[in-house]
Design goal:
277 residues; hypothetical protein PF0899 fold; 7 helices; 2 domains; single chain; five-stranded mixed sheet; cell projection
């Protein structure tokens, strides 16, 4: 079981510390024969409460990751399409050339009155064109087959590469910013229906910063109470919210799977896992 952390609300208070009169401080220094006091003793025992600063977090744009991966797939499709269109253009050009030669032979034979020669020339050109057509159809079919095979094999690989890049971006941001989980929880709370009692499960390495920002999140979302629980199953930077109204899965691995499914909903794609950094 995870450790349940129940914390009272933090109260932000400001204390005014007066500046000591220079004359009085000088007199006290002259009269004292004991070693100099620490700065804390001179000011008093007033405790200044540190107010946590808002995290500056570069939010991962999941939609941009989907767009970039989709663009990569489209470029691959366009490349295959250009190859196929090039084959069609070549076929059309050669056929036009064959027709022109056929017509030229027929016209020359008519001018010279050689019907037999005309028929022979036309038959020769027709045979060559038929042979050429068969060859071109074979090339086009092969290109089309290669294109389909390329897209079938390349698409999962391109998606895998795009997701691998996005995973590295996310984990790099998590490793550089301890407050990443705060933004994850903040976003997940906007999807929570319940407002009275919510349990937030986070990775143990994210527990300290979540304790620090819990009351701020409570106040911002008008929640009654947010309970924090350490859970090794949650990847660092991610979270799972539980309440009577349901569960919000905001684990990093889950979000990467959603990106993958949006790109290519295929069971053949490798499973994306996000381990705690």
């Amino acid at each position: 079981m995870g450790k349940i952390v129940r914390g009272a609300r933090l109260v932000e208070e400001a204390y005014r510390v007066g500046v000591p009169d220079a004359r009085i401080v000088g007199e006290l220094a002259e009269e004292s024969t004991a070693p100099s006091l620490d700065a804390a003793d001179e000011v008093g025992e007033t405790e200044l409460r540190a107010v946590p600063q808002e995290p500056t977090i570069e939010v991962i744009d999941w939609e941009s990751l989907r767009t970039e991966a989709t663009a990569a797939l489209e470029r691959a499709k366009n490349s295959a399409r250009e190859i196929l269109e090039g084959a069609f253009r070549t076929a059309s050009s050669l056929l036009d050339q064959g027709r022109r030669e056929r017509e030229a032979i027929a016209e020359a034979a008519r001018g010279e009155g050689h019907e037999a020669g005309r028929q022979e020339g036309i038959a020769r050109v027709d045979a060559e064109m038929n042979e050429l057509l068969g060859l071109l159809h074979g090339i086009i079919d092969a290109v089309r087959e290669d294109r389909d095979r390329f897209l079938r094999s390349a698409e999962p690989e391109l998606v895998r590469l795009a997701l691998g890049a996005s995973e590295r971006i996310v984990h790099h941001e998590i490793s550089q910013n301890d407050q990443f989980v705060v933004e994850t929880v903040r976003s997940a709370l906007t999807r929570a229906v319940a407002r009275n009692d919510i349990t937030i499960r986070v990775n143990p390495e994210d527990m300290a910063v979540m304790r620090e920002y819990r009351e701020r999140l409570v106040a911002a979302g008008d929640f009654e109470h947010l309970r924090l629980i350490e859970d090794q199953r949650i990847d660092r930077g991610g979270a799972v919210l539980e309440s009577d109204s349901g569960t919000v899965d905001a684990k990093i691995a889950t979000q990467l799977r959603e990106v993958r499914s949006a790109l290519v909903p295929s069971d053949e794609l490798p499973e994306i896992t996000a381990t705690a950094s």
